[in-house]
Structures are given as C-alpha cells and as structure tokens.
C-alpha cells in the first residue's frame, strides 16, 4: 500500500510548501474520490489557521435486522391500543439478539462507512466512540475497532470512548471538530462513532427501547458544517436515568423527572445559544434577535417521538415568552392566555403543553417531523439517536430543500449533559456535489427498514430473556442463525473463559 | 457574585474590541491573580489564531490519608523480602475505605485546585474526567462535579468522561488542549480531572494497587506548554488488562502480555514521535536526529516503579538500534553485544534488559527517578499515574532546574491506547513567575505523604473486604470515621435505596 500512496505524499509535500490550509477533502468523497492519506502521519505544516467548514462529509446508519411491532406489543402487554403507537409515537422497535453487542454494532457501522466511501484505512487520524452500553469498565470499544485498521498498519489514531448517557455521540463530535481546528490535526479525517443497545426490564419502559449505531466522517469543506464557535451547553447533577446496577443491562429511570430535566436543559441551552449567536451577530454589526425562524430544520435527541414534538413546542414557548407584547399578540395569538408565565413553572402544565403542540404543529411538520422517521421505526438508540434523526432528515428531503439551511440540533444525556448547536448546509446542491452525495447516500433508509424481519412479542421477549441469561456468561458462542443478520454485519462469535470477545462478519 | 465581576466584563469587552488573542491567564495564577471570568459565556471575538503555549497552569494531587507499608505486606503475604519494595520498586501503597469512591476523589481534587488558585467557579469553560473506576455505566463523574459549580450558576461547561484503562487522563488533556485551540474556545480555563481506585483480588497483583486523583488547570501562556502539533499515538486491540466482570471491582490481568504491550507501544510511539519532530525540524531547516538527549526529563505511566526504569532503558535501546555503527561504538559501548537486534524480538530478553538498565542508570537518575516519588509511596493510580509523576518531578526540582527544558511523557492504557507527547517548560523561573508558583505548589508533597496514617496489612485487608461487601449494596452509610480523612476531603455520605449517592465534605 505504501507505494500506491506515493503520489499523494508528493501532493501533501507540495501542499505544505505552498501553505494552503488543507486538502479539500469533501471533494474526494465518496465515490469519485482519489486516494488520500498522510500515511507517515506527519503534521501538515499549517500556519495557525482553522480549516474551513469542519463538519460531516459522510454518515452511515446501522440498525438490527429484526424488530417488534408496537401494535403487537400493545396487545401482548394488554394495554390500550395506541399507548405506544400514539402516546409514544413509536410504531416499531429494533432489537439485538445475543449475537450482537456494542462492539459488533460499531464494527459494522465503521466498516460499512469505510467501504461506501472507499477511503483507505490509513486516511483516518482520529476515531472516538460515544456509548453508554458498557460491557467492559476499562477496555474501550475504540480499541476493538482498531482491529479493522490492522491490515493498513495505521495505529496512530487518536481518541477513545466517551460516556454520559445519550450525550456521548455529541461529546465525540465536538472533540473531533476541536481536534480538526487545533494544531494537532494532521490533515487526516476524523471519525465519530456512536451506538447503543437500549433495553428495559419487562415493564412500562420496555417499548421505549431500540438499538443501532451511527458513524460519521468529519473533515473540512463539509456539506454539513458545524457552525464555528457556536455551542451552548448545560450540565447538572441529577439522577433522572442512570445505570448503577453494573450486573444488569437495565437502567434505573425516573421518567417524570427525566422529562423535566430534558425540557429544563432545552430551555437553558436555547437561551444560551440565542445569546451567543446574537453576540456573534452584534460583532458583525447585525442587530437582530434569534428565533426559531432562523432554524430551517430542528432535530432533537429522541427518547420517544412525542417527546420531540413537545420539545419543538417548548422552543416556541421560549420565543413567545421572550418576545415583545406586540409580537405576542400578532404572532402567537393562540398562546395569549399564557402570557407572563415563567418557564420554570410550566414543566407540568398540561393545558399549556396542549396549546403549544397545536400552535407549533405547522412548524413541527416543516422543521422536525421528517427527522423522526428512523426513531419511529427503530426506537431509541441513546448516543446515536440525534444522528439517526439527522440521517432521517437527509433521507426525507432533497439536497435542494436542504441547501443553505441551518439545522439546529439538541443533544441530551441524562445525569445530565446537554448541548444545542447547529449545522450550516452548503449552498451547492448540484448533482455530484458533496451535499447531493451525502443526501443520496441516506435514500435507502426506508428500503432497509422495510427489509427487516418482524418478530412476534413472544420471540422478542424470549430474546430479551436470553440477553439477561448470557449477560455475564463466559465460555459460550451466542445462539442464533447468522443468516438472520444483514449481509456484512459483524457479530459476536465467542466469549472465552477469560471474557475475551471474538467477532466475525457475515459475508456481504 | 455577578456584581463583583463587572470590571472584568469590561476588561473582556475591551479585549474583544482590541482583538488581542486572549488574556494572559498564567499571570493571573495562583495567589496574586485577579478575578477572571466570562460569566456571560460569550465566545471571544477571536480571529482564527491558536492561543500561545496552551498547557498546564496549575495542578493538584490528591491521595488517601492512609497507606499500607510494602515491607509489612511482604511479611503478611509470606513472600521473600524485597519482592515488592525492590522487585516492584514500591515502598508504600495508598488505599480508600468505602467512604471514598471515584466521585468523592474527583470532588476533592477539583475543590482543592479551585480553592488554591482562588479562581471563580464561572471561569471554567470545560471540564473532562478520565477514569476507569466505573460505578455507573451511564452517569458521568463529570455530572457529579457540576454540584461544585452550582452556586456560581455556571452550567455551561463542556466535556464529559472518557475511558480506556489508564489512558483517560491523557485523552482528556488532549481534548482540552484541542478545545482551547479551536474556534469553540470561549476564553475560559479548561480543567482536566483524572483519578482511579486501583484494587486487586488478594493475590500477587494486590501490591500493585493504589488510589488518587489529579486535577489540572489548562490555559494559554502556560509554564508547562504542550508542544504544538506534536503527538504520537499507537492503538491496538489486545486483552492485556480489562474489566469485563462488571459485578466486581477487580480487573482481569495478563501481566506478562501487558508488559510486552506497554513496551511495544512505547517503541512505536517513540519512533513516531521522533519521525514527527524530525519532520518539524526539517521544515524549520534543521537537519538533526532526535534522541533521548533532547528530553531533559522523561515521565511514564507507572504501573509499578521498576517498569519505568526498564522503559527508559528501552528508549535507550531504540536510540542505540537506530544510530550509526560509529555512534553505537562510541556512545553505547556496553551495548555492543546487542547490535543488529530487532526491537520486536527483544521483549523477553533478560540479558539485554539488564545491560540496558545498567547502561541507562545515569540517565534514569537525571531524567526520570524524581518523577517516581509519588508512585513509589502511593502506588498506581491508573489514569492519574502519569500526572502524579509530573507533580513529583516538579516537587523534586527547582524552577531553575526545569526552566527551558523539554519533558517527554508516555501515557499507556491497556486494551490498548498509548501516546508520547511533550511539554516545553517556560524559560522564566524568577520568583513569582508562573513556573515558580507551579513548582512551589507541589513542594508539600513529601509532607503530605508523611502525614498519612500507616495501617497494618490486617486492617488493609479488612477494608478491601469491606469494599467487596459494599460494592453493590444500596441503602447504607459507609462505615468509618470521617476524621480519618484529610481535612477538606469529600466523602460518600450515603447510598440510598435507588443507588443515588450523596456526598459531604470534611471541614477544612
């Protein structure tokens, strides 16, 4: 492989000599790219500049090949029809058998992304994993992923695992972007991987599970650029959802508290985000308040889909309460009865919630609904939930629809850590453009979801029981037929006497 | 507090207006500093420049107030005298009772650092925790630390927990430095926290335990600046040390494999580091090979102290094998018998190891020995081990000795993730300089270690048994007298029925 890369090394040297900020990586992606590498991992002789438009060049979503239908679950659990499908907004839920664990999920999604982009394995200089599906308190999923890079000889890849509930994917994304803007960036791509297996005991919470993973390739000149210098974060110490019982796969959840924490974090992040962007505008000589109108699209971490509709509604409440009374009268007629409320007094106000959801329905349909496509059909995937929403948004809109827009993104992890940030979508939506290629790469999402196998609640429950039985076993090969997995899926082949895990891949 | 900050807000505004890169934070530290804050968390209107000399402004080490003597342990375990004290190079080992856990350790070290630097709590814009002492699979230690910031109203603090064995502290340090060089830096300090409770079953490995935490304050113009654009990393998928048994506090260890992995990672990182720095030199028009002579000091992750002496010796082997035969004859006379060896064939060569340790003894005494002071007396603290070595180095040298030097640092986490990087120490060692203040802040290390209580092996074993019994308990208050803790130590007050942990602080 070294010899193949020689022309590129020359290109890099030339680039260094001319002190251009960096290769236009996005243009190399995905199908028509040339080989790109800094195999020698020599830092580019960059001057102290940030590369332009660091963000997402490509992304890949993985979900299990089997699901349970939520109407079936409603019947099986003897609950009223619509409790899950309407109340939670969930129609189907993906789940994994013992054959899959967090390592195999991440192996699969990384391999798929690398194969689709056709990038050489030594073109990645950073890879970080966000997950809360901990199967080893010390050994990072990242180290298992190094197996994929072995043949390339690329072992100089920064980044390990990062954890706080559903926030780990966002922390990884931020860390990767920071690296790319720092002096330590060596000109190579960063990869952000997030995934989880969300399972609950056989009670009310079980229908809010799910499983999946997302891998994202980051570089400069990205069609989905992170807005430079702009992030709002809110963190607190709370016990709303946590996993203190290390011997069990299941979390402890205070559902009511968690919803309040989520909404409070949303309020705080939105206020801070508006404040920061308004300050940016001021410094640019623009005096204009920021409102939801400035987000053409808005995506959210999705514990269940109706939560997201209420969250967008909540942002409208924020805009309403902070606007002048003239604006309140003209723009928010349906909300006039709620004037003068304080945000912190409204978390359990059902009348307000109802009015907000109604008032924001149009906005929801335009800005957010499309992003829930995957979550509706696959469930909550914790750290990768928000990025599954991003993929859904891309899959349900054309590049033309998206071009030039701002996508707001709210990430929430219990405990709690939350951030609101945004992507600027590139203007160029022409055929073959990076944006168009990224968008079209997500177009198979519906077909892939349709091709999953529908399992009965009985089969689902049986598999959940098996997960419990095998959770701490050693010296076994997981039961099940590998042909039930999608082609190209990595799976757990064996756990030996010493808890060491061995993986294999179903042929593509 | 808001009113107190007003003059600083004005200073910040002025600074923004004049577009100076950033406040010279280091000058504000520690005793004579003025209050500094960006309470409004508005990003500075920086242009696309990296701040100068991002690195460590201040650091704080915490270790438990009790230890067991290794000669006592040798007798108690009926092993030959010197097995632990000479064979491992360990004289004492700190340990925690059930009153302390990873959260309390980190609470203590962060509070101590903030109190000593007298910084306002809203001057921190990023805080990340590296640990492998996982007591919750979802909720990050970072979220518990947010409790300390609550009164200040500062909830906009990026960063969560990061995990891969002993490497988490280094990953956090890198992430914090990247943030500070990125467009997302808002002018505030970053804090890196790492800590662990290293415990083993009652077998051969038990004397290699330890417990402690380190907190580091990061900013520009630091007396210990990270060398810009220079890091060498090596990662692989191996099972040398891991914690797959989630129901136990103890790891699985393949000691022999782990030593080989450590040394292989060291070889690879050193080769890559030399390659990268030589490339930097070439671009600056300097054609000079990098050798150990270019590190005035060298610190290592320290699983046990004799491992570090062998590791420095190993770096000499690297220099020896890559030098010309003339140099080999002149500089490395004692090693001539080992010419022509390949690095990868030498991991178990005892004759070579002995010759190397002898040949590098002088170098060890000059560059590394002082850094082992804390590790010798407190044991392995996993993620914070390397940074305890850094504190030891500072505590055993004068600012004058250190000024202008380069400190090499090798971080290793099983699984595996390893990096070699370096600090440049500032030239200014004058009284009151940031360097002098940082160095003098570590001078009480010997006195603090001396003030610990020596416990008998029987008492130590009893407390280890208690840790096992309480590991998964709920609804209890830890046994023990809080007066056995150092003043100002946070401790676990209660774990309630729902596994929620409550902490209190022993008065200062």
Automatic annotation (TrEMBL), chains A, B:
Residues 50-223 form the Hydroxymethylglutaryl-coenzyme A synthase N-terminal domain. Residues 430-454 are annotated as: Disordered. Its main location: mitochondrion. Residues 445-454 have a biased composition (Basic and acidic residues). It is an enzyme of class 2 (transferase). Pathway: Metabolic intermediate biosynthesis; (R)-mevalonate biosynthesis; (R)-mevalonate from acetyl-CoA: step 2/3. The keyword Acetylation applies. Keywords: Acetylation, Cholesterol biosynthesis, Cholesterol metabolism, Lipid biosynthesis, Lipid metabolism, Mitochondrion, Phosphoprotein, Steroid biosynthesis, Steroid metabolism, Sterol biosynthesis, Sterol metabolism, Transferase, Transit peptide. GO terms for biological process: acetyl-CoA metabolic process; cholesterol biosynthetic process; farnesyl diphosphate biosynthetic process, mevalonate pathway; ketone body biosynthetic process. The active site is at residues 132, 166, 301. Pfam families: HMG_CoA_synt_C, HMG_CoA_synt_N. Residues 225-506 form the Hydroxymethylglutaryl-coenzyme A synthase C-terminal domain. Its EC number is 2.3.3.10. It catalyses: acetoacetyl-CoA + acetyl-CoA + H2O = (3S)-3-hydroxy-3-methylglutaryl-CoA + CoA + H(+). The keyword Lipid metabolism applies. GO terms for molecular function: hydroxymethylglutaryl-CoA synthase activity; identical protein binding. Homodimer. Catalyzes the condensation of acetyl-CoA with acetoacetyl-CoA to form HMG-CoA. Catalyzes the first irreversible step in ketogenesis, condensing acetyl-CoA to acetoacetyl-CoA to form HMG-CoA, which is converted by HMG-CoA reductase (HMGCR) into mevalonate. This is Hydroxymethylglutaryl-CoA synthase. It comes from Microcebus murinus.
């Amino acid at each position: 492989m070294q010899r193949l890369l020689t022309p590129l090394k020359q290109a890099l040297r030339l680039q260094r000599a001319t002190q251009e900020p960096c290769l236009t990586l996005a243009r190399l992606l995905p199908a028509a790219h040339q080989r790109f590498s800094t195999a020698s991992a020599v830092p580019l002789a960059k001057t102290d500049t940030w590369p332009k438009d660091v963000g997402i060049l490509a992304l890949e979503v993985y979900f299990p090949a089997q699901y349970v239908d939520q109407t079936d679950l409603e019947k099986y659990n003897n609950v009223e029809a619509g409790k899950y499908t309407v109340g939670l907004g969930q129609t189907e839920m993906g789940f994994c058998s013992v054959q899959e664990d967090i390592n195999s999920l991440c192996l699969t999604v990384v391999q798929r992304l690398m194969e689709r982009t056709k990038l050489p394995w030594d073109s990645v200089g950073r890879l970080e994993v966000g997950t809360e599906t901990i199967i080893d308190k010390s050994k990072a999923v990242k180290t298992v992923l190094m197996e994929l890079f072995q043949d390339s000889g690329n072992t100089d890849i920064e980044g390990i695992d990062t954890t706080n509930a559903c926030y780990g994917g966002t922390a990884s994304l931020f860390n990767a972007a920071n690296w790319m803007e720092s002096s330590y960036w060596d000109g190579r791509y960063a990869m952000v991987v997030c995934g989880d297996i969300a399972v609950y005991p056989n009670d009310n919470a079980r229908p809010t599970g799910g499983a999946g993973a997302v891998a994202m390739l980051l570089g400069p000149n990205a069609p989905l650029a992170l807005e430079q210098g702009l992030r709002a974060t809110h963190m607190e110490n709370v016990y709303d959802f946590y996993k203190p019982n290390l011997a069990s796969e299941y979390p402890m959840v205070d559902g009511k508290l968690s919803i309040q924490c989520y909404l409070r974090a949303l309020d705080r992040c939105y206020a801070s985000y508006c404040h920061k962007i308004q300050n940016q505008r001021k410094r640019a000589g623009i005096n204009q308040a920021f409102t939801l109108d400035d987000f053409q699209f808005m995506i959210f971490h999705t514990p269940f889909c109706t939560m997201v509709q209420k969250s967008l509604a909540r942002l409208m409440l924020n805009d309403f309460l902070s606007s002048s009374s003239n604006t309140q009268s003209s723009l928010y007629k349906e909300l006039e009865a709620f004037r003068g409320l304080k945000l912190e007094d409204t978390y359990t106000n059902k009348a307000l919630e109802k009015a907000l959801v109604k008032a924001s329905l149009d906005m929801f349909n335009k800005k957010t609904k499309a992003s829930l496509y995957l979550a509706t059909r696959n469930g909550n995937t914790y750290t990768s939930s928000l990025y599954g929403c991003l993929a859904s948004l891309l899959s349900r809109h054309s590049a033309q629809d998206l071009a030039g827009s701002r996508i707001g993104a709210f990430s929430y992890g219990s405990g709690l850590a939350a951030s609101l940030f945004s992507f600027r979508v590139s203007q160029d939506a022409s055929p073959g453009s990076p944006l168009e290629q990224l968008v079209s790469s997500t177009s198979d999402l519906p077909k892939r979801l349709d091709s999953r196998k529908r399992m009965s609640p009985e089969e689902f429950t049986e598999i959940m029981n098996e997960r419990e039985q095998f959770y701490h076993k050693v010296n076994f090969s997981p039961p099940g037929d590998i042909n039930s997995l999608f082609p190209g899926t990595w799976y757990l082949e064996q756990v030996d006497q010493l808890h060491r895990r061995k993986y294999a891949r179903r042929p593509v």
